[in-house]
Amino acid sequence: MAFINKRALYSTSRALHIYISTALFFLLILFCVSGIVLNHVDWLKNDKNNGQITAAIPAELVTKANAQLDTLPTLYPEIEAFLAKQYSLTKVKSIEWEKEDALVMIDYPLPAGFAYAELDFTTGELNLDYQTGGFLSLIGDLHKGRYTGEVWSWVIDISAVLMIIFAITGMIILFQNRKKRNLGVLITLLGVATPLVIYLCWVPQIKGVS
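The structure corresponding to this sequence follows.
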């Protein structure tokens, strides 16, 4: 500590603690609420909505497909581009082709749901079945980062790092306050020990396995 400017350390920690808490205000509440939701998955039983859309495939795409049925998979990029433009569907989970029936089937995973597109190039018709979740299902998948995309994955990682910094700066500020330091350390130790004891004593686990 001889090489550390304590005043600068405490001042910087206080500023980080305050501004990180304000920056994370919404996300911290969101992750806490969604954590409670994930601990009660029975709340999500009826939190789904199903729907279906029937639409025409662009005539130009149908013409191209019928002209090259034997090599239809070469049109996958154009098919995906059409669905991305029309319905904002971009993350393909799987894509299948039935040559005999000139069918292309694409599965899209979504947070709290899915979209399944079936393109019939014989009739020129698109059938899009989809499922969306309600608010609780949605925030549950946002909490897990399930099918939420790369950008949201970064949101989770960055917010987690900021929460660690928030906790560490809180401890630094605590040690600055001599009157409350001992009680704060005691509460910290209790906060560490309590979940460990609960895990060891009451959480199901297998033992005696080498």
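The chain has two domains: 6-44+136-202, 48-133.
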